[in-house]
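Task card 7
Instruction: Convert sequence to structure tokens.
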Amino acid sequence: MAYEIPVTQARAELAELINRVVYGGERVVVTRHGKPLVALVSAADLERLETAEQVAEESAVSSVSSLRSAEPSATGERGRFGIAAEHRRPGAGGGV
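Output:
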């Protein structure tokens, strides 16, 4: 659980808050009008968050890539269903 502090108080106690984060291992949420504004976390916490974010992003990309490679091609589907015609955008050539 993070320690919450209003921004006006955080300004006055910034050095102490930094010490609590770095040496005490705390996380501090600075609020404005009772709503979270920013968080103070240690550099080690930030590194862990960024690494987790990167791993999640890479996992999502590989999942989408594997889905795309599993999809049958449009040409294969046309042949499978006996479809001879295909839609072409206006002005794509071959028109009258």
